[in-house]
Amino acid sequence: MEISSSSSKTHFVLVHGLCHGAWCWYRVATSLRAAGHRVTALDMAACGAHPARVDEVASFEEYSRPLLDAVAAAAPETEEERLVLVGHSHGGLSLALAMERFPKKVAAAVFVAAAMPCAGKHMGVTTEEFMRGTAPEGLLMDCKMVAINNSQGAGVAIHLGPNFLAHKYYQQSPAEDLALAKMLVRPGNQFMDDQVMKDQGLLTNGNYGSVKKVYVIAKDDSSSTEEMQRWMVAMSPGTDVEEIAGSDHAVMSSRPKELCDILIKIANKYE
């Protein structure tokens, strides 16, 4: 976890996607701090520099604990600190859980080419739709499934392959960012069979639905299509939409300036 302090009222909390870590935000975090904002980039459990192994994390709640703890520890809404949560890809589901638990501490939630569930449906519906629409096309390429066993029983994690990263994730990003990802990605668990993912009553209109949402569409994403991204927006009426042209799935690598500009605009709107 990386934390930087300033007197700004806006505190950005950045959450990575599947198999990634806080490291993937280095470009955006640097720009936000240079603009005078406070930034916390988190490692979810068994990701990035977090010490746990993937088979030691038994639930999605435990996986998301670093975010839940960070939001719980933040100052109340009435004080100086205002949280803007930013989630990429699978990280959007952790955002949703934190929004449901602590709606009054979050000024806005930004879903960057991310899984964005809706109130009244189980959180796993976004991943199910993604897999249903892309699996027949062989999207996962050289990704490997890794058998794991924890206190909840047998399961499977995914390890992103180098060809997948190059052609479906970072194809428009700098070569240095692709090289970094190949060195630092770890096996990730989607927790599809987790109770939190299957609970249709978990996300409520009164909590999750009350937090302002902004969806950032990566228009040239080869991993999650623009159609899929707009489908999630349509399920949550009232969500603001921003678009970034020429961005691959790793928006923070391929279009960091554009993403940073959008985040600062959101901060100014909701401070």
From TrEMBL:
Which superkingdom, per the lineage?
A: Eukaryota
Task: Fetch the Gene3D superfamilies from UniProt.
Answer: alpha/beta hydrolase (3.40.50.1820)
Q: What is this protein called?
A: AB hydrolase-1 domain-containing protein
A Gene Ontology annotation in the biological process aspect, one of them, is: jasmonic acid metabolic process
Q: Where is the AB hydrolase-1 domain?
A: 12-261
InterPro entries in the record: AB_hydrolase_1, AB_hydrolase_fold, MES/HNL
Q: Recall the GO molecular function terms of this protein's record.
A: methyl indole-3-acetate esterase activity; methyl jasmonate esterase activity; methyl salicylate esterase activity
